[in-house]
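Hey all, quick one. A colleague (J.T.) asked me to put the 4'-deoxy-4'-aminopyridoxal-5'-phosphate job into the tracker so the inputs and the structure tokens live in one place instead of scattered across chat threads. No bug as far as I know, just bookkeeping. Sequence used:
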Amino acid sequence: MQWADVLATRSSRMKASEIRELLKLLDQPDIISFAGGIPDPALFPAEAFRDGFAAALEGGAAAGALQYSVSEGYRPLRDWLARHMTAIGVPCGAENILITSGSQQALDYLGKLMLSPGDTALVTWPTYLGALGAFNAYEPRYDRLDPKGNRPADDIAAAARDAGGRVKFAYLSADFANPTGETLDLTGREALLDLAGALDCAVIEDGAYQALRFDGTPVPPILALDIARTGSIEAARTIYCGSFSKTLAPGLRVGWVCAAKEVIGRLVLMKQAADLHSSTVNQIVTHRVAEALFDSHTATLRATYGARRDHMLAALAREMPEGVRWQRPEGGMFVWLTLPQGMDGATLLARSLETERVAFVPGRAFFADGSNANSLRLSFSCASEAMIDEGIGRLGRLIRAEMGKAAA
Ligand code: PMP
């Protein structure tokens, strides 16, 4: 069988994720890994989940928990999420919430809903790799979203037309982005809404890390600013994707979309076609656990991850040679390193795994155009202080040696 002959054109753009391939290598016990970007499993509220599953499956409750359920999602969880979104500045009701199997599924559905081949998706340079993976299947063209840059909307629209489509949406992670850890400030968010207005396109706001702010002043979600302009979520162009993966547990695969009813209604049809609904029992238990401890648990996460960030920043300041740059993220899981021009993150990783046994993610994978090879992503979420001291020390030594070679 020549499988290549029976594949759709879209499959040619679906490539193995560099991160997933890399994660396979990390089982080796002597590797110090800053690659993952996953929550620390030691912090999972496992006992609350054990109790929650026991209650959900006890006696008569089991019949409902194990049965098919509605595509929109478990109503008490949607009610909880409507209150949660309202609390973070987005007034809405349960009818504005769809439960998805992780926010990754929402990205896939939004690509499916909006992108025809050749349409333009605006993404930041760099952007979340999984978003590119989700959108790629719908054969878009990518253009650079720079909310603070002043590229005129007319130029962006004209380039999209020349490519045979139009700009359908701008996608970004506004809080503690993956991979850069950066947060878009209020001015940037307003400028983004201006740009989306001029292009008459949607905004996809990825809020995966929103609850993980360690310090600084919270910036309202883009959806909140959009509602302030338009008067109602029903008139807003912004679609917010949320997730319990970084706050409770990713293995449950529970995420959500918060948007105008019209958008939710269309996404429900996607869900019916794709998987009917997300796991009933997982939604029921997520609701119980969120109700019991979301606030206290996220406070613990913020304190723990915040201390790890501080430790990593201190180690970087101590160990990195002149010419390596990074910023201080106010939350999330990542620090983004820019290496001196000419140095390549992927080459550095290969050397590092060979000689220093330290892992990270090379930056190029996060750029839709494959540019900016001289960057890398470090995650502090699963790193102990000892790991950070040792790992960043080794990495600093390696980068210094590579710079020495380049200069020689
Ligand atoms: N968005 C961002 C920015 C992410 O980093 C991730 C996971 N790494 C996701 C979405 C998807 O997460 P999930 O499907 O587990 O909600």
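Adding what we noticed when we looked at it: The first helix runs from residue 18 to 23. The chain has 13 helices and 13 strands.
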